[in-house]
Predict the 3D structure of the following.
Amino acid sequence: MLQSELDGKRVVVALGGNALGETPGEQLKLLENTSKNLAHMVKEGINVVVTHGNGPQVGIIDEAFEVASKDKDAQVPPMPLSDCNAMSQGYIGAQLSCTLRNEFRRQDIMREVANVPTHVVVDADDPAFKDYEKPIGAFMTETEARVFAKATGYQVREDSGRGWRRVVPSPVPQDIVELETVRDLMEDGCVVIAAGGGGIPVTVRDGVHTAVDAIVDKDLTSAILAWRVRADILVILTAVEKVYLDFGKPTQKALDAMAVSEARAYMEQGQFAPGSMLPKVQACVKFVEAHPGGRAVITSLDHAAAGLRGETGTLIVADEK
Ligand SMILES: Nc1ncnc2c1ncn2[C@@H]1O[C@H](COP(=O)(O)OP(=O)(O)O)[C@@H](O)[C@H]1O
Ligand SMILES: NC(=O)OP(=O)(O)O
């Protein structure tokens, strides 16, 4: 796809939480770089909506409150995971708003940035509340993880060959509460940051919203958002340039493209790790199925522009009729 063909297109860009570094300072640096890439897209006439992950960050915030609340002298209250989730959304979104505004100024882009704290509706009976799948927080060795699990009562799991992490419930997002606000802001010409950390999950009963302690997968929420704002392209940016078959094995093979039926077959073979690559592929399939004509790309931040032009990354498209 030529750059000129991207002019006027709506693109939802999902930034991986694991690509945001481990400290606020590191995150700010990475977001400055990310904002350069996003600003280039905006300058080319693309209507960008940005979503972001929060797995490592929400784990750190939760851990900080856990440790501090156990210190009798510190006078820090325990903090529910749902509120830690909201804090991560606020702090990542706030840093990104700042770095985007600075980059727009540098590149003479006259666009407003709006950060929308976002909630997503989930089903209170989602089986994910029993079978925890979402890795959050720092990576540990297996021994460290087992000690941590014994001390805290938390569940831990190996994460895609990268180490062990705490896992929490990750219910499937059904709807985005602030969707109309996001749409209105887009119509007004804002570059919108929304659905951070997959959104704060709420259950709704008789119209009453109740936040729940879970972390929604931001790629699944991004797919709903992309479909509901009629995006042309969903771009999922993570740490790898492409999706692989036999990931991490000597037989590893990069995928340039997958039709939906191929993606489903690979998912059935267990090619994509739950909690990491699997929800990304599921999200892409969900988007291109819900929005025929839509394209989805998984690639790394550094390859975002080339991925948008179809020159790299793994493209997911609907089956040919
Ligand atoms: N089949 C696969 N192909 C590519 N990467 C995979 C695959 N299976 C698991 N992964 C891992 O999934 C990671 C992306 O998931 P994750 O780190 O959770 O995403 P995020 O960037 O959104 O935080 C990749 O960096 C890689 O380590
Ligand atoms: N909430 C979420 O999906 O975060 P990560 O992208 O960090 O896993």
Remarks:
- The first strand starts at residue 10 and ends at 15.
- The CA atoms of residues 272 and 278 lie 5 Å apart.
